[in-house]
Amino acid sequence: MICSFDLMKKNSSKTLNIRPDLEHRVTNYFENTPRGQSVAGVNIWFLDAAKFRAGILLLLAGSHDNTTDVTFFLAMIHYKGEDSKVKWFSAIPIDLVYRQNFESTKETSFVGHVFLCIPDQTSNSSTCERTDGIVIVYPNFVQSVFLPDDLKGRNPTLLNKVVPIPAGTKLVGHACDERFCYVMTFDGAISCVRLLPRGFEDDLADDNAFIDELCALRDSVSQDDEPLSIFVSAFILFASKNIVSRSY
Fold first, then answer.
1. The dihedral sign for the CA sequence 210, 236, 180, 191
2. Whole-number Å distance between alpha carbons of 126 and 207
3. SUPFAM superfamilies, from UniProt (predicted)?
């Protein structure tokens, strides 16, 4: 059940009971997969929701009694009018190497740990072109999904990109601004999630050379010019995403 809350009147303004519709769609998905068979005991978890294209985009997880695998879904609903039907619904494609991190018998592997992150420009745009798509933050990886321009029926997703989070890295938060999504780690690093052209990472060599030049500048700064030395040192740590160390 989805409830909207009026901040001015401080009460619930509308309630939509879409669970039966979602259960029907999730059941149909499992029964129509390549190994599809009649399923029972379908479970659905509501993980997150975000404003998107004059509606609400829902992030769900689903499973059933015949498997411990977890499948993630996106669903689009609108609050206009009295129609409480789901307008668009799709499974999220995820490779096995990432899906095996989640089990329906271990809800803590995904409940409270998988989030939607949609910047304002993406949310208000009628197309995912010139955006980084719908960003989904998982415990061990980040995913960008391009949704169809026409969110109706079973229109397929247009693009799906996944980047793993380095082993041993613990995420502690995420946030969005007007254009980008950011993830924060336990060691104090803040990373911006971007979709970049193939080969873009080759340009990082220039960034590393720039940091080396800054280090040389720091070492050559006179000890009498302490403010400049502190500034350069802090900027080097910032450019290296070492946020904790630079906050001295």
1. positive
2. 35
3. Nucleoporin domain (SSF117289)
Question: Which of 153-157, 159-163, 229-233 tops mean pLDDT?
Answer: 159-163
Q: Is pLDDT at 37 greater than 80 in this prediction?
A: no
Question: Structure tokens of 231?
Answer: 């500034």
Q: What is the pTM of this model?
A: 0.76
Residue 73: which of 13, 128, 116, 11 has the closest Cα? 116
Widest CA span of the chain, in angstroms?
A: 78
Strands (E), the chain: 2-6, 11-16, 43-52, 55-63, 71-77, 88-91, 115-117, 134-137, 141-146, 159-164, 171-176, 181-185, 190-193
Q: Which residue ranges make up each domain of the chain?
A: 2-165, 205-246
Helix (H) or strand (E) holding 25: helix 19-31
Superfamily name and number for 2-165? YVTN repeat-like/Quinoprotein amine dehydrogenase (2.130.10.10)
- The mean predicted confidence, pLDDT, of the chain is 82
Which letter does DSSP use for residue 93 in this model? P
**In 3D, which of 239, 242, 190 has the Cα closest to residue 217?**
239
Confidence at residue 93, expressed as pLDDT on a 0 to 100 scale: 92
- Provide the token pair at 23: 């259960």
CA–CA distance, 5 with 21 (Å, rounded to integer) = 22
Q: How far is the first Cα of the chain from the last one, in angstroms, to the nearest whole number?
A: 47
Model confidence pLDDT, tens digit, residues 196-244? 655 555 555 556 676 677 677 767 766 666 777 777 777 766 666 554 4
